[in-house]
Fold:
Amino acid sequence: MGELRMGARVDVESAGPIPLLDLARQHLHLGEELTAAVRRVAESQSFVLGAAVEEFEAAIAHYLGVGHAIGVASGTDALYLCMRLLDLRDGDEVITSPFTFFATAGAIANAGGRVVFADIDPLTFNLDPRCVADVISERTRAILPVHLFGQMVELQPLLDLADQRGLWIIEDAAQSMGAKALVGGSWRAGGTVGTLGCFSFYPTKNLGGWGDGGLITTNDPDLAERLRRLRVHGEDPGLGRYVHGEVGVNSRLDAIQAAVLSVKLRHLPGWTELRRARAAEYDRRLDVLAEVTTPVAQPDRFHVYNLYTIRAQRRTALRDHLTKRNIGSGVYYPLPLHRQPCFRGLGYEAGQFPQAERAAEEVLSLPLFPELTAAEQGRVVETIQGFYGG
Structure:
């Protein structure tokens, strides 16, 4: 599709669909590279872990600037295995955000911990360090901040809290591959600042595979060694084949996923710049609408925009308006975690985390992916402007 000239108008009623995300376009450009990579795996007959996974782990560790990268079966498993490292006992607490995907809190509960929520910063949708400080107790073992939508949490205050209280920081960086922040005067990649970092390679992520996949990062060699044991049922190479030092799980990254991700990793920096350029254009053209609040990218953070998420007045009506005009959108997330039925036993009530609840009522994610054309983006903007009478 051609570029949209400045000031040109498009027929928003009759144009073709604009999806929230279009992976087919990405794969069209990478078809030959991906096919060759998968063919090499097929010819090797090594489908689980193996050389392809080791090569990817080395490449992604170099990209992030971290000592160790351990491939696992999913982002959820990455979170769960990190919780396992804490050796949680009954009553042990882990603090996290109520405004995130379910897996963040689910991993804590599945590992035997008690989920403790703290409210979010209304500007970034990320965990508010001041709210975290208010809920730390003698039973707190770790803080699990989520780098939501592609922007890192304000980490320095959390690092200070963790240092004072002897806590772990475990970063949920599932949506923020390549995001950075100024921490201690240096730019650091998300997932490399705390004790551990967790990533997802679900297909919708900025670096997505052809199925599930995940990664854990750390600079601690002892933790890395234990994670490599846990992902293969706890088998301990030092004790011998089929000898298990502890009960682990089956959470190995498939070689085909690693091969696909290795190809895509080479393109990730360019894709990130395209995402940021499209986000800046949304900012420029939507900031004029009083009914819309565009994402706030903090100056000390490098936002990678896994999702371009606005706050919108009359959100449901706007989404219906977009849908009728063949424009995709998403609501991430419509129900905060403290109000999920499965967490009723934690004793939280409606209204207890007002910023998270307000965000759940207002957020709307707009189409944003590297291959989105200027013409398509122009149509999205004009449709929103038309809804609000702009």
Observations:
- The chain has eleven helices and 13 strands.
- The first strand starts at residue 68 and ends at 72.
- The domain at 28-262 is CATH 3.40.640.10 (Aspartate Aminotransferase; domain 2).
- Residues 1-10 have pLDDT under 50 and may be disordered.
